Each structure stands twice: as structure tokens, then as C-alpha cells.
UniProtKB/TrEMBL annotation:
Species this protein is from: Chitinophaga rupis
Chain ranges passing through the membrane: 6-26, 38-57, 63-87
Organism taxonomic ancestry: Bacteria, Pseudomonadati, Bacteroidota, Chitinophagia, Chitinophagales
Membrane topology summary: Multi-pass membrane protein
Xref: InterPro entries: NADP_transhyd_a_C
Protein name: proton-translocating NAD(P)(+) transhydrogenase
Amino acid sequence: MAFIHQHIELIYIVILSIFLGIEVISRVPAVLHTPLMSGANAIHGVVIIGAIIVMGQAEADNYIALILGFLSVILGTLNVVGGFVVTDRMLEMFKSKK
């Protein structure tokens, strides 16, 4: 409970960011979701780098930071790869037929 009391402002920011993200994404038309995924690859690249930094700076006995960093690297990598796959499929639609 002491952790929550010490970091209550950060917890509020994360919760408000979640609600803001849901509102922004829900207002985007379905036609724009695929192009936006291409742009999101850069954001997920930043997440991966941040997670690697957190894991590198964490102490060996800080399992929470190591587990969260590892999960962030895995999930960020999946998002980057998925974004590239979707973007590649989208660009294939615009190539001329032989």
C-alpha cells in the first residue's frame, strides 16, 4: 500500500491516459486504422527501447521491473511486427496486377 500512496499521481496519469486513448481510438474511422498502425510502429519502437532501459537499470532482485520490462519488450515487438505485416498487406493492394 505504501507504493500506491507514494505514486498516486502517476497512477492517476496512467488511468487518465487509458481513458483518453480509448476515446481517441474509438473516434477514428475504420478506414484509417490500417494507416495509423503504420505510424504506431515508431511509438512501439520507443516502448521497446524504454523497456530495455528499464530492464538494464533494474536491480537483480527487482522482479516486478524485470517482468514488466520483459512483457513490454515482447508485446512491443509483437505490435511492431504486426504493424509491418498489416502495412505490407495494405501496400500489396495498391500494386498493379500482372
